[in-house]
């Protein structure tokens, strides 16, 4: 399927661009199907492309000194990654992998740089995005400093709840929550440890799974309290 202007307009970061700029980007873009666990961005390697996720799910990952994989953030449909290539030739420090079969759109970084020059709104969006990502990564690193596994899991769930859209946030819903394995990677914990914490939270009626697409936070105050107690 060719990349069209209408397809690019599905990405919020590109919606401020005029149609003629989007047409130029579409001509230089390619749509690619990738398999689960495919490496989308190789950490430490300069990339000439930005990756926009059309369908599926991606995750930014890094590795500890002993070689364990640690998840840093998720990339959902409508979002993008690899943006550090816009600023210098050093590449992303972390890698980005596919958590499921996904469809991505690759747009040359050089073409995006040209498009940015005609859109102050896009520049502002990139600045906001960068600030948000720095704060997110800082908070994620702080979670790893907690020795309490319960506090880590509850902290991760609280952060995800805060990032939901207004409707889900109001109703205490985390849409498309990560699996226990994915949470374990983010928190440097085993899947079994995450499962035990979830069993406790469910027994205490703090959380409840609603299929695979929703996690219901039944008691926000209790969840936040377990997070904020930390190692205390």
Q: Care to describe what's here?
A:
Keywords: DNA-binding, Kinase, Transcription, Transcription regulation, Transferase. Helix content is 42%, strand content 22%. With 232 residues, it is an alpha+beta fold. The chain has two domains: 5-123, Sandwich (Jelly Rolls), CATH 2.60.120.10; 143-229, Winged helix-like DNA-binding domain superfamily/Winged helix DNA-binding domain (Arc Repressor Mutant, subunit A). Strands 1-8-3-6 form a four-stranded antiparallel beta sheet. Strands 2-7-4-5 form a four-stranded antiparallel beta sheet. The chain has a three-stranded antiparallel beta sheet with strand order 9-11-10. The longest helix has 25 residues, at 120-144. It is globular. The model has no long low-confidence stretch (mean pLDDT 90).
Could you name the CATH homologous superfamily of the largest domain? Answer: Jelly Rolls
The percent range for helix content is: 40-55%
Largest sheet: 4 strands, antiparallel
Number of domain units: 2
For this entry, give a set of tags.
4-stranded antiparallel beta sheet; Arc Repressor Mutant, subunit A; 232 residues; 22% strand; single chain; Jelly Rolls; 42% helix; globular; 9 helices; alpha+beta
List the helices and strands and how they pair.
Blueprint: H1 5-8, H2 19-28, E1 30-34, E2 39-41, E3 49-55, E4 58-63, E5 69-75, E6 80-81, E7 95-98, E8 102-108, H3 109-116, H4 120-144, H5 149-162, H6 166-171, E9 173-175, H7 180-187, H8 191-203, E10 207-210, E11 214-217, H9 220-229
Antiparallel strand pairs: 1-8, 2-7, 3-6, 3-8, 4-5, 4-7, 9-11, 10-11
Helix pairs in contact: 5-9, 7-8
Pfam families: cNMP_binding (PF00027), HTH_Crp_2 (PF13545)
Domain HTH crp-type: 147-221
InterPro entries: cNMP-bd_dom, cNMP-bd_dom_sf, Env_Response_Regulators, HTH_CRP, RmlC-like_jellyroll, WH-like_DNA-bd_sf, WH_DNA-bd_sf
């Amino acid at each position: 399927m060719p990349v069209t202007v209408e397809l690019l307009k599905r990405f919020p970061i590109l919606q401020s661009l005029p149609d003629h700029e989007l047409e130029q980007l579409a001509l230089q873009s390619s749509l690619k199907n990738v398999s689960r666990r495919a490496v989308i961005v190789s950490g430490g390697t300069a990339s000439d492309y930005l990756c926009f996720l059309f369908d599926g799910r991606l995750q930014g990952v890094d590795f500890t000194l002993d070689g364990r994989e640690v998840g840093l953030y998720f990339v959902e449909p409508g979002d993008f990654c690899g943006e550090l290539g816009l600023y210098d030739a050093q590449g992303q420090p972390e890698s980005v992998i596919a958590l499921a079969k996904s469809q991505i759109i690759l747009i040359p970084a050089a073409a995006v740089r040209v498009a940015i020059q005609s859109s102050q709104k896009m520049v502002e969006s990139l600045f906001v995005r960068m600030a948000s990502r720095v704060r997110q990564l800082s908070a994620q690193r702080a979670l790893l400093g907690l020795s309490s596994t319960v506090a880590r899991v509850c902290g991760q769930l609280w952060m995800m709840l805060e990032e939901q859209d207004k409707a889900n946030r109001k109703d205490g819903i985390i849409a498309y929550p990560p699996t226990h394995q994915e949470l374990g990677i983010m928190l440097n914990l085993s899947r079994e440890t995450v499962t035990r914490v979830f069993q406790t939270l469910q027994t205490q009626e703090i959380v409840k799974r609603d299929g695979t697409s929703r996690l219901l936070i039944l008691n926000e105050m209790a969840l936040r309290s377990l997070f904020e107690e930390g190692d205390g």
